Amino acid sequence: MAIIRIALLPLLAGLSAPGIAQTALADDLAPTDMLATASPAVTDSIPIDGPKPAAAAQPHAAAASNDRDTLTGDWGGLRPRLAADGIAFRADYVSEAFTVASGGLRKGTAYTQQIRASVDLDMDRIAGWRGGTFHLTINDRRGHGISSDFVGNRLPIQEAYGGQFTKLSELSYEQDFGHGAVNMRIGYFAMGNDLGGISAGCNFVNAAFCAHPLSMSGDSSWYNYPNARWGAAFRIRARDNLFVRTGIYQVNPALGLEKNAFRPFAGHTSGVILPIEIEYTPGQRPGDHALPGSYKLGFYYDTADAARTSRTGTGTVSGRMGYYFLMSQTILREGTGKRGLAVIGAYTVNPRVAAQITRWYMAGLIQTGTFTGRDSDTVGLGLVHAVLNPRLREAYAEINNPMSGMDALPQGETAIELSYGLQLTPWLILRPDVQYIVEPGAFSYAARKDAVAVGGQVKMQF
Asked: For the whole prediction, is pTM greater than 0.90?
């Protein structure tokens, strides 16, 4: 009952605060690529990655109060009128409360929340600039981390924890060319908005699933929402089901500091990240008979200097790189609705020369449509394993000389998660969740009991 009360606290707080007009997600701590492309409704139906229209082109339609897409409705007709004029407001809220039932550092409970507010300006409707959209997003996070404070593990149990302050998360301009054949985004935004994500992974709570492999941000200067940097992103539609994404992004660690939350020109550029990603999306064109899927193959190169991983712990490298493969695929479909079963997966490779995580493995099953009449509910079972760079283990053993040598140190960390997404309304999801963390002390070179964390997540769209 204590866990149920904890999970309902953020819901009650949200319903009692009508003045809230902000939003939520995760960063590498998450997502996320959903920021500029999410539909007004919160949904746990199996999302398939792929190009989506800009949010400004999706006005909120007026709806009856019992089936509206957002908590605050259409604002007496004002919201759809503004959207028709090219001004779309979006706001959402995520909260996550968990208790450590056993293992980890110590027992305890932690609550974190995120509120995000965005406005998208459709410049075609406002000024006649066909295919142009301005994006502005402010993000706020508060609370405490169950992984950082009670478990001591690397794979964050709460995807909405990290950077617990208010910050500017996007100020960018997006432009379509050739009826969407080429899309360009320039400005100040999160690299992960456009690359390296599996949106279906956000049917889970752990940041290792939602929605980017943490090896990307742990092994380079890649970082995700809500952390922004200056950059230019390009998406090219080579065919109806084949897309190429690339760009150039600033490396500037100072932008992640709280004192620079609204200072996008603070610090200095120490390098750039150059990524390229190819995505194949079968079954997503009108008339396709194949089950929908998404397959992404990517590579990135970070030009900034970084510490070399070695037994001596000294020296630098002048660049880092990484490779990744991501997929989501519907494998069973029940009827013509949303009910069905999907599989997701990820595999990443990072050279030992400067990486914290050299291999990353993720797999999950997501069923949409559970019990009779619950066509939008989801149940997900997933597993992530992160391999600690053997060179780091060697360096630690060399310095600290553990009794059994390097072989006594954990080789990596594993997270197993079981999650149920209860779609109460189009704008509200409650997600009871349990996670089992194997070797939670691996990235601290510590022997620590496997941890069990029980809790839940609330998602609301305003």
From this structure: no
